[in-house]
Amino acid sequence: MLTSHLEAIEGVEVSPVEDPGPGARADLEDITARVPIEDLRTEQMLQQLQHQVSDLRVELRKQAAQWSVAHSELQDQIDALTKQNLALQQELRARGSQGAAATEKLSASLPRTCGSRALGVHKPSRLLGESSGRKSPAQASDVPLQEKKAPASKKDTYPSVPESSKARLPGQGQARRPPRFSADRRVEQVELTLSDGRMIVTFPNGTRKETSTDKKTTIIKFYNGDVKKIKPDQRVIYYFSDAQTTYTTYPDGVETVQFPNKQIEKFYPDGSKETAFPDGTVTRLKAGCEETVFPDGTITHVKRNGDKTIVFSNGQKEIHTAQFKRREFPDGTSKTVYCNGCQETKYSSGRVKVKDQTGKVILDQKQK
Q1: Which of 32, 179, 184, 204 has its CB surrounded by the most CB atoms within 10 Å?
Q2: Distance between CA 341 and CA 318 in Å, rounded?
């Protein structure tokens, strides 16, 4: 059988491949030339689609921001309406309690009036005692009060609330409050992770929180313009937009406040305080004592008892107490004015001169 198959194969004639001809070769070259062109068009379309996707993402972020602003405004309106509703309910309850108090007051006064005029004046039938089988004075007095009540003004024409429905009012019992939206709900905040690892979270009220890649720096920009920063060294910096004031706390307990005029106040854990003014003056308060350093080098010390010492940049020194004021000069001379008006001058040479209240020299002792 194998021999027969081989003979059959040997008997098959193989025809040579024919030349496709010049027309077929041209078509093949045209197709080969069009392939790069089609790839280029596909790449261009892909880039256009990517640009469209990017534009759509930007538009989506804008719409999300607008939605958050609109949501915040609606929430404010809901809160305002809730407060207004509660205020109206309180007003209605206050008016009801005032009416009840007036009724009780009148009811309490009617029996005393009737009793003081007993046997002389006809007692009204509605104020008779329990022996007549009628209502008590307190119960009967409700009728004339309702009949003589002044017509309510427009702001008081609210429908009365049945007792059975009071539990459904806001703020009472199992009240149904208006829906409130919590920023903790993940569906109401937008989280975005950037390519460098930073994370940005945008909350519905417009607040924006940005966390650094290493999670050590956090910046929170609030919807009212305030900014809070947490630094890697654990400093917390809070900027108040309305007051344009910066408040900083340090890990060691030190707190600083910087005002718009560049004045800086520093508070220490021991209770001391340091204030640096824009002109360079620095004031320190500690343990009831005050020290002030002026730009020209003058230093002032004030003790707890009120005694003041002033050291000038030229070397002179003043001491103020309740008994005297003294000025000391660099050469050793000192002049003292006492509270009684007497003056004493001590010279560096040892000379002492004393004047009384009138300025008369009463002592002039020279060095021997």
Answers
A1: 204
A2: 17
Q: What is the pTM of this model?
A: 0.45
Phi first, then psi: give them for residue 358, nearest 5 degrees.
-85, -5
pLDDT in tens, 302-343: 999 999 999 999 999 999 999 999 999 999 999 999 999 999
CA-angle at 148, arms to 143 and 149, nearest 5°: 100
Are residues 309 and 317 in contact, defined by beta-carbon separation less than 8 angstroms?
yes
Of 17-21, 201-205, 253-257, 360-364, give the lowest mean pLDDT range.
17-21
Residues 72, 198 contacting (CB under 8 angstroms): no
C-alpha span between 47 and 32 (Å, rounded): 24
Across the chain, the runs of DSSP E, i.e. the strands, are 190-193, 199-202, 208-211, 218-221, 227-230, 236-240, 245-249, 255-258, 264-267, 273-276, 282-286, 289-293, 299-302, 308-311, 317-320, 324-328, 334-338, 343-346, 352-355, 361-365
Q: How far is the C-alpha of 279 from the C-alpha of 258, rounded, in Å?
A: 14
* C-alpha torsion sign, points 38, 41, 47, 52: negative
Rounded to an integer, what distance in angstroms lies between the CA atom of residue 85 and that of residue 83? 5
- From the CB of residue 40, how many other CB atoms can be counted at a distance below 10 Å? 10
Spatial contact of 333 and 344, defined as CB atoms under 8 Å apart:
no
Residue 239: count of CB within 10 angstroms of its CB? 18
pLDDT tens per residue across span 1-22: 445 554 554 554 545 545 555 5
Q: What is the pLDDT of residue 64?
A: 81
Report pLDDT digits (tens) over 101-149: 655 554 454 444 333 333 733 333 333 333 334 343 333 333 333 333 3
Q: Three-state SS for 44?
A: helix
Does the pLDDT of residue 249 top 90, yes or no?
Answer: yes
How many other CB atoms sit within 10 Å of the CB of residue 68?
20
Give the contacts of 359 (CB within 8 A, at least 6 positions apart).
343
